[in-house]
Design a protein that fits this description.
Elements: H1 2-19, H2 24-74, H3 78-96, H4 102-121, E1 124-126, E2 139-145, E3 155-160, E4 163-165, E5 168-171, E6 173-178
Parallel strand pairs: 2-6
Antiparallel strand pairs: 1-4, 3-6, 4-5
């Protein structure tokens, strides 16, 4: 029986060798692959975040440039209108003068009206100041004077017209205000 037992033991040992247990190298390689997969997943997540941040930055830049373009378009005439205001002032002074040449006066009046109509079409409007409450945002007080029958802080005289371009002030009105 001992011989039989010995043969059985040898057969079992041979079978165990055929099954070949998992070697340490295979385990190490599997662990290494798992770590690489985790690392690659983290890289993908980082790249997604970078993409989303870049996309958001691009959208914000696009919106900002659009707003700047609209503002530039809205106020494109501002520098021209500011430079033409002294011409308007001189035309108004010319119209105030007494002259015997009525044709000359009519010519100046027509030029003034055409210029004002062109500026109005672009959004330039004179600021109404006379007999209005003083507003430091649109009026520049040059003098104060007590005027009988007029409430305090009312514009009693306009020394120089002010103008607005849409919702911006091109030039504040120079005014005399009641005390």
């Amino acid at each position: 029986m001992s011989k039989e037992k010995t043969n059985k033991n040898e057969t079992i040992e041979e079978e165990l060798e055929v099954v070949d247990p998992v070697e340490e190298e295979d385990v190490a390689e599997a662990v290494s692959l798992e770590e690489e997969i985790i690392s690659l997943k983290q890289d993908i997540e980082n790249l997604k975040n970078d993409y989303l941040k870049t996309f958001a930055d691009t959208e914000n830049l696009k919106k900002r440039l659009q707003r700047e373009h609209e503002t530039a378009r809205k106020y494109r005439i501002q520098s021209f209108a500011t430079s033409i205001l002294p011409v308007i002032d001189n035309l108004e002074r010319a119209l105030i003068q007494d002259t015997s040449d009525e044709a000359f006066r009519e010519g100046v009046q027509m030029i003034y009206e055409q210029l004002m109509a062109s500026l109005k079409a672009e959004g330039v409007e004179p600021i109404e100041a006379l007999n209005q409450p003083f507003d430091p945002n649109i009026h520049q007080a040059m003098m104060m004077e007590e005027v009988d029958g007029v409430e305090p802080n009312i514009v009693v005289q306009e020394l120089q017209k002010g103008y607005m371009l849409k919702d911006r002030i091109l030039r504040a009105s120079m005014v005399k205000v009641s005390q």
